[in-house]
């Protein structure tokens, strides 16, 4: 709950965090359930590359579902936070928990993936993202760490106001991560995954975040 100055207290953050985590984990289950049905229809002998082409109508529905998922996570973040920085942190939290729980539920239901390095198709917007399961899990863990640092700063009365260079680092990192999934994907087959792009993207994003937190360590909201 907010204190007299309008800031959210530690107890309020904990209650919000539990609600966001529960919602995101439930969304992860729904996502996994949809994938179970799709695999029964298109991969009854087991999911593997090269991918079987889906009908155009089904692909359009999938694109809509993915967009709706992101919209739901954004709406949750808007409801959970009072300031833009809080909303950013709650979106990062929800996205990360949703993504990780999705793989947890798939492992529980289908005993898949077989290993951390099993390739998967991660997203379809604006084109297919393909990479080993470990890679999105690492991104999600980094997002959880970043969100936790932002919320910790805000909860102590500090500010989170990235400058131009910090935003540039974060956006460049996100771009590198995106390229790691799409740059060498062709004809439904996963190419060699570019771990160096993932590592560079994570480092750039964390640099921008930590630089902002360090620079504003003495600032107050």
General description of the model:
With 221 residues, the chain is mainly α. 67% of the residues lie in helices and 4% in strands. A two-stranded antiparallel sheet has the order 1-2. A hairpin with a 5-residue loop joins strand 1 and strand 2. Helix 4 (134-155) runs parallel beside helix 6 (195-215) and helix 5 packs antiparallel against helix 6 (195-215). The longest helix has 33 residues, at 10-42. It is globular and about 55 Å long.
Number of helices: 6
Strand order, largest beta sheet: 1-2
Distance between the termini: 17 Å
Query: How much strand content do the residues show?
Result: under 5%
**Share of helix, binned:** 55-70%
Low-pLDDT regions: 1-6
Instruction: Provide the gyration radius in Å.
Output: 19 Å
Instruction: Compute the average pLDDT.
Output: 90
Main beta sheet strand tally, sense and closure: 2 strands, antiparallel
Number-wise, the strands total: 2
Shape: globular
Order of helices and strands: HHHEEHHH
Pairing-aware structural class of the strands and helices? mainly alpha
List keywords for this structure.
221 residues; mainly alpha; two-stranded antiparallel ribbon; globular
Summarize it:
The chain is mainly alpha-helical and 221 residues long. It has helices at residues 10-42, 56-80, 84-110, 134-155, 164-182, 195-215, and strands spanning 119-123, 129-132. It is built from 6 helices and 2 strands.
Which helices and strands occur, and which strands form pairs?
Blueprint: H1 10-42, H2 56-80, H3 84-110, E1 119-123, E2 129-132, H4 134-155, H5 164-182, H6 195-215
Antiparallel strand pairs: 1-2
């Amino acid at each position: 709950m907010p204190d007299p100055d309008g800031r959210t207290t530690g107890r309020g953050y904990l209650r919000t965090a539990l609600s966001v985590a529960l919602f995101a984990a439930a969304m992860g289950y729904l996502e996994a359930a949809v994938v179970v049905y799709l695999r029964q229809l298109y991969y009854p002998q087991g999911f593997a590359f090269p991918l079987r082409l889906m009908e155009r109508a089904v692909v359009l529905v999938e694109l809509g579902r993915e967009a709706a998922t992101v919209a739901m996570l954004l709406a949750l973040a808007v409801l959970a936070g009072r300031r833009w920085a809080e909303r950013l942190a709650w979106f990062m939290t929800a996205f990360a928990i949703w993504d990780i729980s999705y793989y947890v539920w798939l492992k529980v239901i289908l005993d898949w993936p077989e290993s951390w390095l099993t390739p998967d198709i991660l997203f379809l917007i604006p084109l297919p993202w393909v990479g080993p399961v470990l890679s999105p899990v690492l991104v999600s863990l980094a997002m959880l760490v970043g969100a936790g640092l932002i919320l910790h700063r805000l909860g102590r009365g500090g500010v989170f106001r990235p400058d131009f260079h910090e935003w540039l680092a974060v956006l460049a990192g996100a771009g590198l991560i995106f390229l790691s999934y799409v740059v060498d994907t062709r004809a439904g087959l996963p190419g060699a995954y570019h771990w160096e792009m993932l590592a560079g993207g994570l480092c750039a994003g964390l640099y921008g975040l930590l630089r902002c937190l360090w620079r504003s360590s003495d600032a107050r909201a």
